[in-house]
UniProtKB/TrEMBL annotation:
Name of this chain's protein: Glucose 1-dehydrogenase
A GO MF term: glucose 1-dehydrogenase [NAD(P)+] activity
Alphabetically ordered keywords of this record: Oxidoreductase
Main enzyme class: oxidoreductase
PANTHER family, alphabetized: DEHYDROGENASES, SHORT CHAIN, ESTRADIOL 17-BETA-DEHYDROGENASE 8-RELATED
Pfam families in alphabetical order: adh_short_C2
Database matches in SUPFAM superfamilies: NAD(P)-binding Rossmann-fold domains (SSF51735)
CDD domains for the chain: SDR_c
Oxidoreductase is among the record's keywords: yes
EC number annotated for this UniProt entry: 1.1.1.47
Similarity remark: Belongs to the short-chain dehydrogenases/reductases (SDR) family.
Transmembrane segments: none
Length: 252
C-alpha cells in the first residue's frame, strides 16, 4: 500500500520531468493534490506529461528548461511562482549519462556535459528555488544523486564525480537553510527501469544487478514515493541526508 499525502495548496517543481523518475514524481505530487511545474529540455514531451496530469484532474504546466543554462532555470522557477504563487517542493532530477570510457581516453566534451547537467544544473536549480523558499521561510528540496554518488563504478568517473558532488551540494545547502525552515536532502537510486537505463551497456546492467540484492530493477514510482516522503512532514527531522533507494545495492 502506498502512503497517502495531502499536498493540497502546495506547489512542486520537478526537473527532468518528461520521463522516468521525473514524470513519476510529478504525477505523484499531482495525485497528492499539489500544483506541479514540470521542467524539461524536451518541449514536446514535457507538455505531453503535463497534459496527462491535467487529463486525470490534476493541476500542472510544462516549461522548457535546460538545467545547464542558468537563465532558463531562473525563468522556469519564476514561472512556477508567477503561475501558482509559491514554491513548496522541488525535485532536482535532471541528469545524463555518457558512454563508458577509461578516464585516460575520455573526451573533455563528455566530462563537461555530465558536469554541466548533473552537478551545475542542480546547483543552479537550488539557487533559484532557495531564493523563493527563503522568502517564504519554508520548503523542501530533494536532489537526485545516485548510488554512484556513494560508490565508484568502472569507466564512469565523470558521472560518479557529478553525483558525489550532488551529495556535497545537498549537505552544504542543508546546513545553511535548516534553521530557516527549509529542508534539503538527496536520494540515491539504484538501477531503475528508466529510458536512461534501457540505453546502458547490458553487461554493465548485469553487473549492477548482481549487487542489487532485491534481484530486480527499481520502478520510477518507487523513487517518487521516496521523494514525496522526504518532502512530507513525515520526514521533518531528516536534513542533509543521502537516502539510498537501491534494492540493497550499497549494503551488499
Amino acid at each position: 500500500m502506498k502512503p497517502r499525502y495531502d499536498f493540497s495548496g502546495k506547489v512542486a517543481f520537478v526537473t527532468g520531468a518528461s520521463q522516468g523518475m521525473g514524470v513519476a514524481a510529478a504525477q505523484a505530487f499531482a495525485a497528492a493534490g499539489a500544483s506541479v511545474v514540470l521542467a524539461d529540455v524536451n518541449s514536446e514531451t514535457v507538455e505531453q506529461a503535463a497534459q496527462q496530469i491535467r487529463d486525470v484532474g490534476g493541476t500542472a504546466i510544462g516549461v522548457i528548461c535546460d538545467v545547464a543554462d542558468d537563465a532558463q532555470v531562473e525563468a522556469a522557477v519564476n514561472k512556477a511562482v508567477e503561475t501558482y504563487g509559491s514554491l513548496d517542493f522541488a525535485f532536482n532530477n535532471a541528469g545524463v549519462q555518457v558512454p563508458l570510457s577509461d578516464i585516460a581516453d575520455q573526451p573533455l566534451s563528455d566530462y563537461n556535459r555530465v558536469a554541466d547537467i548533473n552537478l551545475r544544473g542542480v546547483w543552479s536549480s537550488m539557487k533559484y528555488e532557495l531564493q523563493q523558499m527563503r522568502k517564504q521561510g519554508s520548503g523542501a528540496i530533494v536532489n537526485n544523486a545516485s548510488v554512484g554518488g556513494l560508490v565508484g563504478n568502472r569507466d564512469l568517473a565523470p558521472y560518479n564525480a557529478s553525483k558525489h558532488g550532488v551529495i556535497g551540494l545537498t549537505k552544504s545547502a542543508a546546513i545553511s537553510y535548516a534553521a530557516r525552515g527549509i529542508r534539503v536532502n538527496s536520494i540515491c537510486p539504484g538501477t531503475i527501469d528508466t529510458p536512461m537505463v534501457a540505453g546502458m551497456d547490458q553487461d554493465m546492467i548485469a553487473g549492477v544487478m548482481r549487487n542489487q540484492i532485491i534481484e530486480r530493477l527499481g520502478q520510477p514510482e518507487e523513487i517518487a514515493q521516496a521523494v514525496l516522503w522526504l518532502c512530507s512532514e513525515g520526514a521533518s527531522f531528516v536534513v542533509g541526508g543521502a537516502l539510498p533507494v537501491d534494492g540493497g545495492f550499497v549494503t551488499n
